[in-house]
Design goal:
Number of strands: 8
Helix content: 25-40%
Structural class: alpha+beta
């Protein structure tokens, strides 16, 4: 499951020139695509839900791990198992790790434990994310919702130009800028980027 950052109604209101529902299905699809693009750029996942992440452990002293979905609501288990036998592995005691529900970086810190190294040697099961639904997300993160409105409308406007570098009609030509995140949109997303991805 994933969370959309805005709604079809909001994008149509932003555009102001949508008077019918002819493009509603397309707009909804674009919203989902833009929302996933935003998550990828930020290096985090927005939907608050239970999830499992795996981390490489490169040294026995490694202690900081950045989760993709935050703020973190709760941690169910933290298991360090180089052989990946997580089903039977014992979780670290809750006193051995620390996280903050108000942390804006999704950091989980392990304390006083000498880590066992290896690829995907650490499993963290937790619940975290920015919101449980789009309506709440729009209320709590109006700047991100606005960015999604802008980017979705931009993609919609240019949907017929995809893959085109230029067009020529009757001796006149037009060149197109490459698709990408709008500059203002990128500046908004930068405020929410996962430190591990910067």
């Amino acid at each position: 499951m994933a969370l959309d950052f805005t709604t079809t109604a909001r994008v149509k209101a932003y555009a102001t020139d949508f008077t019918t529902s002819d493009h509603d299905a397309l707009i909804a699809t674009l919203i989902s695509g833009v929302s996933r693009l935003f998550e990828k750029y930020m290096g985090r996942e927005a939907l608050t839900t239970s999830r499992t992440e795996y981390f490489d452990v490169d040294s026995q002293e490694q202690s900081r791990f950045y989760l993709k979905a935050y703020p973190v609501a709760s941690v169910t288990s933290v298991k360090n198992e180089p052989d990946h036998e997580f089903a039977t592995a014992t979780s670290l005691d809750s006193d051995d790790y620390d996280f903050s529900a108000s942390d804006d970086a999704g950091q989980l810190t392990i304390r006083g434990v000498r880590m066992l190294t290896g690829p995907r040697a650490l499993q963290i099961v937790y619940s975290g994310g920015m919101s449980t639904d789009t309506s709440t997300f729009v209320t709590d993160f109006p700047d991100l919702a606005m960015a999604a409105d802008m980017q979705t409308f931009y993609v919609f406007q240019r949907r017929d130009e995809m893959g085109l570098a230029s067009t020529s009609i009757g001796g006149s030509s037009s060149s197109y800028e490459p698709f990408g995140l709008l500059k203002h949109v990128r500046s908004i997303l930068d405020e929410y980027r996962n430190p591990a991805y910067m």
